[in-house]
């Protein structure tokens, strides 16, 4: 190409620009994402929560024995070295002279653009006297001044400068390659070729191959594919899996096998210490030959899990191995939940009767085992043992109290402050305050359920085969908030109230309580009701007794008994509220009927507007959920014996307790800090009628805080499509027009064929 020259940058200045940009693109994001967290900030956070979590094992491991790791130091050193290199390159670039500058004669003569000829000549004389070589001036500067003077006074030079940017006319444009001069030197060609081949033909393939080999061994949740295969095989093999079998399968994970995981360890002393623990624990099945469940690593993991659930003291040499195993258990149990759900979906999609889906009890036992491992408690132990300073001996005093029957965390929270102090009189003042602080940090979740059918004219009308969307709003509070409410309600109860209002206020203020005093007050209020209201409320608990007995065989007697009591208390409170609503509604029937006769159009318009607003809100919620990236750090869990700080997460799903089937797949709520909205979707039943489902909210960290809420669905027949529907009428007209056009084309083609035959 004429007027252009391609050459290497012999000076190497261009390479500094390229290298500075390249290093900057690496250093800036690496510093933001990889700079180690300030240890002082973490220590301050731990000191602030010491009053509540000071007795937890994970707290003592992190505060009293901080992890001395060289990795943060190496990260800081590497990042600081990168910044030093970046600053050095930026300094070199700033000192590099620009080789290609736009020529401006006015700048050379120190004149403003547009100066007159007389001003140019005057300035030239002054600069010539100053920089002339005969008078001791700079010869190079004098040549530049003379060239600038000619560019502004000579016609040809001025024309060349205006057209080509140079008084001498067009110049050749040179392009430099951003590489240092020694790389393109012929003497170093073999060395450069050797480095290039080593980097791109040896190092790069090895790094990519090792990364690929590691990635194909793990799933998206960083669980070994082999572990998922083991879980899938044994879950399919054992449809109804109790907790003993579940622990056995959980311990068979390849994460505990030193052959597949380098972090897992196997010591010679295990052959002596593990049999001793087996004799202390007892009731361990060692006869079945089911590899890998009977392999030494699996047996060791199972024994250490059972020792943790029994809160046994183990040898010091096994504590590190036990902590490693326990840290892996929540993620492995979540993987087992995923496997069970996938097998249930496969069983529904296949018509083969031989394919058996896992039972609902297996899924719920898996979730319950996660609670047990985090809290270090066995299946039928009291949830009160999650609190500090409450042991088995003290628990007997609390459970066998003559006045109060305390069996759960909610029962203890529902007591008045004076009653709690008298009940826990065996604790010292400091220990009692610590127990109250821990109890106040426990979560209290409020569940609001709203079934609807989105993308439909009437979202509240559920028809056969429609896609039902259950919007569940979870609001998290702490038990400390419940203490404040309890105090306010107690103060309100002490004040004199009018007749007929006391019972209503008591029911509304303590509706969240399931047992204890709330049940007694509800029973008293039922006795005060007239006979008419007793006939209206259906006896739901009596009708569901055989169904509950059937569920006990799968879920365990104690758990289902608690759920039955909670559901019965919920339904009792619901029926009481319905009766109260009927009383108030009967007084307003005449006025409401007249108003509805007078203004039906206005109400219809308001309903349409409300539905439209709900639809817009649901769309906005979906958009926010897509745009927001929420962190899985919610609230730390109080766990006395779990070796790692666990975040508070929940499972929520819908099931049919009558058929013992799963209606919607469990959703793992990992971002519940204050409030969270969850949408569970499932197809409506194929037959119209009333259906009784149950919404389960289960914690993966706490025992005794699960909630069971009824979900009633009234499924109607699908509305037939009207014949004069505008959408179908337009489609029919389009089909008729298309048929007419096709018939016209066929007749036209026949006429053309006949004319051709005549010709």
UniProtKB/TrEMBL annotation:
Keywords: Chaperone, Coiled coil, Endoplasmic reticulum, Membrane, Phosphoprotein, Protein transport, Repeat, Transmembrane, Transmembrane helix, Transport. The keyword Membrane applies. PROSITE patterns: DNAJ_2. SUPFAM superfamilies: Chaperone J-domain, E set domains, Sec63 N-terminal domain-like. SMART domains: DnaJ, Sec63. One of its GO terms (biological process) is post-translational protein targeting to endoplasmic reticulum membrane. It is found in: Endoplasmic reticulum membrane. The keyword Iron does not apply. It is a multi-pass membrane protein. Residues 733-759 have a biased composition (Acidic residues). Pfam families: DnaJ (PF00226), Sec63 (PF02889). It comes from the Eukaryota. GO terms for cellular component: Sec62/Sec63 complex. The chain crosses the membrane at residues 15-35, 191-213. Residues 485-615, 719-759 are annotated as: Disordered. Residues 581-607 have a biased composition (Basic and acidic residues). Residues 104-165 form the J domain. Residues 517-535 have a biased composition (Basic residues). GO terms for molecular function: protein transmembrane transporter activity; RNA binding. The ER translocon complex consists of channel-forming core components SEC61A1, SEC61B and SEC61G and different auxiliary components such as SEC62 and SEC63. Mediates cotranslational and post-translational transport of certain precursor polypeptides across endoplasmic reticulum (ER). Proposed to play an auxiliary role in recognition of precursors with short and apolar signal peptides. May cooperate with SEC62 and HSPA5/BiP to facilitate targeting of small presecretory proteins into the SEC61 channel-forming translocon complex, triggering channel opening for polypeptide translocation to the ER lumen. Required for efficient PKD1/Polycystin-1 biogenesis and trafficking to the plasma membrane of the primary cilia. This is Translocation protein SEC63 homolog. It comes from Microcaecilia unicolor.
């Amino acid at each position: 190409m004429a007027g252009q020259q391609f050459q290497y940058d012999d000076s190497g200045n261009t390479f500094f620009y390229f290298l500075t940009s390249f290093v900057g693109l690496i250093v800036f994001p690496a510093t933001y994402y990889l700079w180690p967290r300030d240890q002082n900030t973490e220590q301050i956070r731990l000191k602030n929560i010491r009053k509540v979590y000071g007795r937890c094992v994970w707290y003592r491991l992190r505060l009293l024995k901080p992890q001395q790791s060289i990795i943060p130091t190496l990260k800081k050193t590497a990042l600081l070295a990168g910044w030093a290199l970046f600053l050095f390159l930026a300094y070199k670039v700033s000192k590099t002279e620009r080789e290609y500058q736009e020529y401006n004669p006015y700048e050379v003569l120190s004149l403003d653009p547009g100066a007159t000829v007389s001003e140019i000549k005057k300035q030239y004389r002054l600069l010539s006297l100053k920089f002339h070589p005969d008078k001791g001036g700079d010869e190079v500067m004098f040549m530049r001044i003379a060239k600038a003077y000619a560019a502004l006074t000579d016609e040809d030079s001025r024309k060349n400068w205006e057209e080509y940017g140079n008084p001498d006319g067009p110049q050749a444009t040179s392009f430099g390659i951003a590489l240092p001069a020694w790389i393109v030197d012929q003497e170093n060609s073999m060395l450069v070729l050797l480095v290039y081949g080593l980097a791109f033909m040896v190092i790069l393939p090895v790094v990519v191959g090792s990364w690929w080999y590691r990635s194909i061994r793990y799933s998206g949740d960083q669980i070994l594919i082999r572990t998922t295969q083991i879980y899938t095989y044994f879950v399919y093999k054992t449809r109804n899996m109790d907790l003993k079998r579940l622990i056995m399968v959980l311990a068979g994970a390849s994460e505990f096998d030193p052959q597949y995981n380098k972090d897992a360890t196997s010591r010679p002393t295990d052959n002596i210490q593990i049999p001793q623990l087996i004799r202390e624990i007892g009731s361990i099945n060692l006869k079945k030959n089911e590899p890998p469940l009977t392999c030494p690593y699996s047996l060791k993991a199972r024994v250490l899990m059972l020792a943790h659930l029994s809160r046994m003291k183990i040898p010091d040499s096994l504590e590190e191995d036990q902590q490693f195993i326990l840290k892996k258990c929540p993620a492995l149990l979540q993987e087992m939940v995923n496997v069970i759900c996938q097998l249930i979906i496969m069983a529904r999609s296949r018509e083969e009767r031989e394919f058996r889906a896992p039972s609902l009890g297996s899924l719920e036992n898996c979730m319950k085992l996660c609670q047990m491992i985090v809290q270090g408690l066995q299946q039928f132990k009291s949830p009160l043992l999650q609190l500090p300073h409450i042991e088995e001996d003290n628990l007997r005093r609390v459970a066998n109290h003559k006045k109060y029957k305390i069996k759960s965390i909610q029962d203890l929270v529902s007591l008045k402050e004076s009653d709690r102090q008298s009940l826990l009189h065996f604790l010292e003042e400091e220990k009692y305050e610590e127990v109250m602080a821990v109890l106040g940090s426990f979560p209290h979740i409020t569940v609001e359920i709203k079934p609807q059918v989105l993308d439909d004219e009437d979202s509240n009308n559920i028809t056969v085969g429609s896609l039902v969307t259950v919007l569940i709003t979870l609001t998290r509070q702490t038990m400390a908030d419940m203490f404040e409410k309890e105090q306010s309600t107690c103060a309100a109860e002490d004040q004199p109230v009018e007749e007929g209002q006391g019972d209503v206020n008591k029911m509304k203020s303590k509706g969240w309580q399931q047992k204890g005093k709330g049940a007694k007050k509800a029973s008293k209020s039922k006795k005060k009701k007239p006979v008419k209201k007793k006939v209206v409320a259906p006896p739901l608990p009596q009708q569901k007794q055989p169904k509950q007995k059937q569920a006990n065989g799968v879920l365990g007697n104690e758990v289902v008994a608690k759920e039955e009591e909670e559901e019965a208390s919920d339904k009792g409170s619901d029926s009481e509220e319905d009766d109260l609503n009927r009383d108030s509604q009967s007084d307003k029937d005449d006025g409401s009927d007249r108003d509805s006769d007078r203004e039906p159009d206005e109400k219809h318009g308001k309903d349409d507007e409300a539905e439209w607003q709900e639809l817009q809100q649901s769309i906005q919620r979906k958009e926010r959920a897509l745009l927001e990236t929420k962190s899985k750090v919610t609230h730390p869990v109080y766990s006395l014996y779990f070796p790692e700080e666990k975040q508070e997460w929940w499972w929520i799903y819908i099931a049919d307790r009558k058929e013992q089937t799963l209606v919607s797949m469990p959703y793992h709520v990992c971002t519940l800090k204050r409030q969270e909205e969850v949408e569970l979707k499932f197809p409506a039943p194929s037959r119209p009628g009333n259906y009784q489902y149950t919404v389960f909210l289960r914690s993966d960290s706490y025992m005794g805080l699960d909630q069971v809420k009824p979900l009633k669905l009234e499924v109607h027949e699908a509305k037939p499509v009207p014949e004069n529907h505008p959408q179908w009428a337009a489609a029919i007209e389009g089909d008729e027009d298309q048929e007419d056009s096709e018939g016209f084309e066929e007749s036209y083609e026949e006429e053309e064929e006949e004319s051709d035959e005549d010709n």
